[in-house]
Amino acid sequence: MKENSGIDRFIEEIKNMFFHNELQYNDEILISNERHKFEIDSCIASLKEIKKSLDNQLSEDFFTIDLMSIYASLGRIIGEEVEDDLVNTIFSKFCMGK
């Protein structure tokens, strides 16, 4: 059987961290939901594509789909689905060939 050596010290250190304000925080964001991470990664990929389009001075037609993809991904994270009417309105204003 293993000895409990160090357990008391470990418990004391945990208490000190919580009760004597010795916890150190950083500014990192923690995403614990795998589905949310997938959606955020999708948004990042779309943003990179939008940046390429803007850097190449392409018209909105080239990145409207990426914008809608971001909107849909964020909607899935917060539980609001993109309505077809909104999608149709946006595409009617930014459709190719106008």
Strand and helix layout:
Elements: H1 7-19, H2 34-55, H3 64-78, H4 84-93
Describe this structure in words.
The protein is an all-alpha fold and 98 residues long. The chain has one domain (7-93). The chain contains four helices and no strands. Helix 2 runs antiparallel to helix 3 (64-78). The protein is elongated, with a radius of gyration of 24 Å. The mean pLDDT is 79.
Number of strands: 0
Tally of structural domains: 1
End-to-end distance: 78 Å
Listing every helix as H and every strand as E from the N terminus to the C terminus, the arrangement reads HHHH
Unreliable runs: none
Task: Figure out the total of helices.
Answer: 4
Largest sheet: none
| Helical fraction | 55-70%
- What structural category arises from helix and sheet content? mainly alpha
Task: Please state the average pLDDT score.
Answer: 79
Which percent range describes the beta-strand content?
under 5%
Overall, the morphology is elongated
Key features?
single chain, 98 residues, 4 helices, elongated
Summarize the structure.
The protein is an all-alpha fold and 98 residues long.
